[in-house]
Amino acid sequence: MKDGMDSTAVRRAPEGADDFGNRKLIRPSLSRPENNHFPGERRDRPIVAKKVPPPEQTHAENFYYQKQIQSKTPMVVVLRDGEEVHGTIEWYDKNCIKIIRPSGNLLIYKPAIKYMFKESEEPKKG
């Protein structure tokens, strides 16, 4: 005897439809080749990276003060009015420096300073 189902009623799906769920997804690589452009893309001039601006604060002034403080270097501070102050730098901050000298300590505002140099060095005239 045959089963109640007709063997012709149950068919297998076509082979292409069964493989659709098992397909591997292929994604193209979007990284640029070594010559910086894709094939067929035209580049008249090379890509130039923008210059990075220099840092706003270099800390060179802080480094200089620290070095002179640690070595207790005798300094000459020339003020804007031409007066020379001889002594060693004890400390500094954003606005002023403290000079130690035998006749008394001074707190000098940085805007009042024309220039400074080590006492052992002669300033360059010119």
Q: Largest sheet, described in full? A: 5 strands, antiparallel
Please name the CATH topology of one domain.
SH3 type barrels
| Topology pattern, helix = H, strand = E | HHEEEEE
Q: How many alpha or pi helices?
A: 2
What would the principal axes of the Cα set say about the shape? elongated
The CATH class of one domain turns out to be: Mainly Beta
The percentage of residues in β strands lies in: 15-25%
For the record, the CATH architecture of one domain stands as: Roll
Rg result: 40 Å
| SSE class | alpha+beta
| Strand line-up across the major sheet | 4-3-2-1-5
Q: Can you tell me the residue ranges where pLDDT is under 50 for at least 5 consecutive residues? A: none
Query: Level of helix content?
Result: 10-25%
Number of E strands: 5
Task: Chart the SSEs and their pairings.
Elements: H1 15-18, H2 60-71, E1 75-79, E2 84-92, E3 96-100, E4 106-109, E5 113-118
Antiparallel strand pairs: 1-2, 1-5, 2-3, 3-4
Précis, in short:
This protein is α+β, with helices and mostly antiparallel strands and 126 residues long. The chain has two helices and five strands.
Describe the protein's architecture and organization.
- The protein has 126 residues and is of the alpha+beta class.
- It has a domain at 75-118: SH3 type barrels (Roll), CATH 2.30.30.
- It is 13% helix and 23% strand.
- A five-stranded antiparallel β-sheet has the order 4-3-2-1-5.
- A hairpin with a 3-residue loop joins strand 2 and strand 3.
- The longest helix has 12 residues, at 60-71.
- The chain is elongated.
- It starts with 14 loop residues before the first helix and ends in an 8-residue tail after the last strand.
- The mean pLDDT is 80.
